[in-house]
Amino acid sequence: MEETLRYVTMRPVRWCIMQKRSSGALHVSLVPKTSHGKPLFDEPLHPRPDMAVDYWNLFVAFFEYVNRHSHPEDYHPLSVQLFHLTEGEARQLDMVGLAVSVAVEGVLKCAYPDIGAPSAAFLLEVERVRDEIKKLAINDEALHVRLDGALNAMKSIRPGDQMKELVSRGVMTAHQQKTWTALRNSSAHATTKFDPEKINKLWKDCLTVYSLLNRLIFNAIGYKGRFCDYERLGWPTAELSPVAPESAS
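-> structure tokens emitted (249 positions)
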């Protein structure tokens, strides 16, 4: 329940349980531990009365998804990926961009582990290259280790490959993938100097990647309904639908 409330409200949810007996009756109260400032992003769907059906459909879909966790005493891996978004209070945009882009990477890893895996033919080619490298007279051990590490990395699932497959399936757009790549790289290598003229673009990129994050979660938990479209001016409510093939090319 706590994990679900964190996502649908995009706010930190923590409480302590107080039990008190009075006149033979047991009174149980949930008391918030601390108060927090405004979160980094608004909720995926505003809790307005006209959105009640979609809001609770989203609540139920997320709750049922995390409730299937094989270790109920721990947080679901999907919820863990969202922790820094719901708990973070950083206002420096490059840090916000890093937080949301890393969250996307984490959701891809835990919710889409079988998408974007290298083909068997590709893995065979990697091993063939490894065999050819072994034939070379490499005297520098450090170089040998780096080459071996590079080949091992090629055998792993990369976020870019996962996104490419999800674009072809209509789960996300090619523009979202391109924006994620740019934001992830720029945020991870941010400098102390910040160009004020780029602030608006950076914030738009953060919102685009946050929209991507929500689309990945919606698809993973099986939610189909309305959502807040943070990629469009005014953040209007939109109907969730697959991305048209021509838009994902």
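The two ends are 39 Å apart (CA to CA).
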